[in-house]
Amino acid sequence: MAQVSADRRIPGYPNDPVREKRELMLRTYEYEFPFNYPNVDVDRVWIGGERHGMELFPIKTTDGSTASTQTPSDWIVIHEDEPMVRVAVMGSACTPPGSILLEADPIPGFRHDGEVEHALPVRYRIDNLWGMHLRADLLEQGGRSEALPIAGMSCAVIEIPPSKTVRVAGLGAIPAWATDSWPDDTHYSVRYIRTTVAEGYEI
Q1: Which of the 8 DSSP states describes residue 36?
Q2: What letter would DSSP give residue 132?
Q3: Which of 58, 78, 83, 174 satisfies CB 3.0 to 4.6 Å to 162 for a cystine?
Q4: Around Cβ 102, how many Cβ atoms within 10 Å?
Q5: Beta strands in the chain (DSSP E)
Q6: Strand 188-198 relative to strand 75-93: parallel, antiparallel, unpaired?
Q7: What is the pLDDT of residues 12-58, one digit of tens each?
Q8: Is 139 helix (H, G, I), strand (E, B) or coil?
C-alpha cells in the first residue's frame, strides 16, 4: 500500500491538504406563490389565477404542427446573495404521484482541480410525491377532499452544493384514459419554496 505523508491522507489526491470541517451558519427564507419577489423569476406557459399554488408544466406541449416545441419546462428561478445549501418545495400534483425537479448553479470553487465541468451536472429529481389538489373536473362533479385519501400536499427537501441560483420545476402523472377531460394536466402546483443559505460561506 502506498505511503501517504502526514499532510496528505487520501492516496490519489497529492495536492489536497488535510482539511478542517466547516461549520455552516444557516438562515432560511420562505417564498409563497405567486412568487412575486424581486429575486424570483417565474417562467411558465399557463397564465391562470390558481389559489392552491403556481401550476408548472413539465413540458411545453406541441401545437400539432411539429413533434416537439423543443423548449424546456416551466421553471421558478430563485437567486440569493449568499449560497443556498438546501431547498424545500411544497405543493401538490394535479394527478399524483408528483415529482420535483431542481437544477442549481454552484458557486466558483465547487469543482475539484482537474474535474471535467460538465461531467456532473447539479441536477435533482424527487419522485413518488403523493398528495393532490382536486382537479377542476372533480370539483365540478362535487368531489370532496375527505373522500380522497391522496388529497393533500407533498414536500421535497433537497440538499445542494453551495449555489446562488436554483431552478425549480415539477410534474404530475399522466392520467391517460380515453374520456379524460384534461389529458395533458400534468402540472405540479408549487405553494411554498424555502431556501436555506450559508451565511459568510467561502470556498
Answers
A1: -
A2: B
A3: 83
A4: 22
A5: 26-32, 40-43, 54-56, 75-93, 98-106, 123-129, 154-171, 188-198
A6: antiparallel
A7: 777 778 888 999 999 999 999 999 999 999 998 877 778 889 988 88
A8: helix
* Cα gap 177→137, rounded to integer Å: 14
Q: Which amino acid is at 194?
A: R
State how far the Cα of 60 lies from the Cα of 186, in Å rounded to an integer: 11
The pLDDT value recorded for residue 1 is 47
| DSSP code at position 45 | S
CA–CA gap between residue 123 and residue 173 (Å, rounded): 20
Q: Check: CB of residue 56 under 8 Å from CB of residue 169.
A: yes
Over residues 107-130, the pLDDT tens digits come to 998 888 788 888 889 999 999 999
- Rounded to two decimals, the pTM is 0.87
> Cβ–Cβ contacts within 10 Å for residue 43, how many?
13
Count of CB atoms within 10 A of residue 38's CB?
A: 6
For 41, counting Cβ atoms within 10 Å of its Cβ (0-12 exposed, 13-18 middle, 19+ buried), the class is middle
Q: How confident is the model at residue 153 (pLDDT cuts 50, 70, 90)?
A: very high
The residues with which 192 forms a beta bridge, in sequence order, are 32, 90
Whether residue 77 contacts residue 116, with contact meaning beta carbons closer than 8 Å, is answered with no
The three grid cell numbers given for residue 74, joined into one nine-digit string: 416551466
- CA–CA separation, 175 vs 191, rounded Å? 22
Give the angle 146-149-151 at the CA atoms, nearest 5°: 75
